[in-house]
Write a structure and sequence with these properties.
Length: 304
């Protein structure tokens, strides 16, 4: 399963045509805009136009089935446009107008009333408006949900594309952590000869400062301190964490939380390595390791 970033944007537009029982038509433009950013959990801020409140619950269910993490903002625009109008005639009023027109014509010799003139009179003819019948409302809501689902598919694809780029970046960070771990393991300062030379130098320094000190006891204490400063355990754990991180990346899916936990473990081992180090070269490696781990964790925050 591919990795997904938590950052994405999608805009989806569709046309929905409604047909009423009396043959009138209405075309509706449905526009969804959905964006997502990083989030610890899954959260949705939804803006719906008046009259579409009933789709909120199915919309939230669709989102939860599609994504595991991210802060989402979704807004819906519904624009209705009548494409086939009907007309109704007020026949009672029309009859009265025609009678009055005939009377005026016979009494005053006026010209016959024209059809367009009569129909233009207020109340004679009205344009029929398409009513939101239950069936039409249900069809519109179904179209709105379909549009939202397609918008989610688009934003999921955008998040997958960014996830591919993050995968490559995280692979590079893990490779660097592994190289630094191996570099610390092979550092000459960890060789038996280097450790012995440091112990001898430390003991000699102390013996020169105070002749009454027991040389054998000093060597014992120095050896004990050298053992405490050994970083083999930290190096082994770093190897284990590297293997775990690579396994998670190969599996894919919503692994952001797990990788975030691993980044904390990486950081803990890097800190311990620096604190236990008794050689400048090991300390330098530890500091570089901490920098890479910070970069790794920063990128992990973008993963679902």
């Amino acid at each position: 399963m591919a990795l997904q970033s938590m950052t994405g944007f999608a805009r989806h537009t569709m046309q929905h045509r409604a047909q009423s029982r009396d043959g009138l038509g209405m075309e509706t433009r449905i526009v969804w805009e959905v964006r997502s950013v990083n989030g610890k959990g899954l959260d949705l801020r939804l803006r719906l136009p008046q009259g579409m409140e009933s789709v909120e619950h199915p919309i939230r269910s669709l989102l939860a089935r599609t994504f595991a993490r991210g802060n989402f903002q979704a807004s819906l625009s519904v624009e209705k446009n009548e494409v086939q109008a009907g007309f109704t005639i007020n026949h009672a009023m029309l009859d009265e107008v025609l009678k009055l027109a005939q009377q005026l014509q016979s009494q005053h010799g006026l010209a016959p009333a024209s059809v367009d003139g009569i129909l233009s009179l207020r109340g004679i003819m009205d344009q029929t408006q398409l009513q939101d019948e239950p069936e039409e409302q249900a069809a519109l809501e179904a179209a709105v949900l379909k549009g939202f689902e397609q918008a989610l598919q688009a934003i999921a694809e955008a998040r997958r594309q960014e996830g591919k780029a993050l995968h490559a970046i995280l692979d590079g960070h893990i490779d660097m952590i592994e190289r630094l771990t191996q570099q610390a393991r092979n550092d000459p300062a960890r060789s038996i000869e280097a450790i012995r030379a440091r112990l001898q130098a430390q003991v000699s320094l102390l013996m020169n400062a105070a002749r009454e000190l027991d040389e054998a006891r000093l060597y014992q204490e120095a050896a004990f301190l050298a053992t405490k400063a050994d970083i083999q355990e930290e190096l082994d754990r770093l190897d284990t964490h590297v293997a775990s991180a690579r396994k998670l990346l190969s599996e894919g899916g919503p692994i952001g939380r797990k990788l975030d936990f691993l980044s904390q473990e990486f950081n803990r081992e890097a800190n311990t390595l620096c604190s236990k180090s008794n050689a400048a070269s090991i300390t330098a490696i530890g500091l570089e390791l901490k920098a890479v781990v910070d970069q790794f964790r920063e990128q992990v925050q973008n993963l679902e």
